[in-house]
What does this fold into?
Amino acid sequence: MPPIPVKPGIYKIHAHIIGPSALVTATEHALKHGAPVITDRLNPLPIEQDWIIEPSEPVPGSPYVIRLAHHEEAGLVIPEDKLYVNSVPRNELAKFTFERVIGGVKILSDKGLALRSGHRGAQITLVPPKPEFQETWTLEFVSPIDED
It folds into this structure.
C-alpha cells in the first residue's frame, strides 16, 4: 500500500491488542538507548502518551518524526529494532511512514519494518510487516501542534 499523509499535530496512538485500550507510552526509566516505549492503559496525565507527529522535512512526501508533545526534545529512536524515546538531535530521530490497513494504520520505519505491540506493558518492537492486528494502530488527533 502507498504511504498516506498524516496531518501534523498532537496524537494519542492506540494499539490494537487484546484487552483494555492501550496507548503508546514512554516509560520513566532510561536504559542504554533511552526510555523504552511500551503500550499501556490510558494515564490520567498525558505527558507520556501525547505525541507530536510531523514531517521530518518541510517537503511534500517526507517521512514523519514522532516526538513527545510535552517534552519536545525527546523523540522516537530505533536501536536494535526496539522503540525508545530519547533526547537526540532531530536528524537522529527515527523516520516513519503510515499505510492504511483494515481497522487503522500500519506505522513503518524507514527500513520498512512495522511497529508491533505484543501485549500491554511490552516494549514495542519493529518486525517485517504482516497482516496482524498487533501491527495495527489508530491515530487519535488531539490538537494542532501550536495549541496548548
Remarks:
- The mean pLDDT is 91.
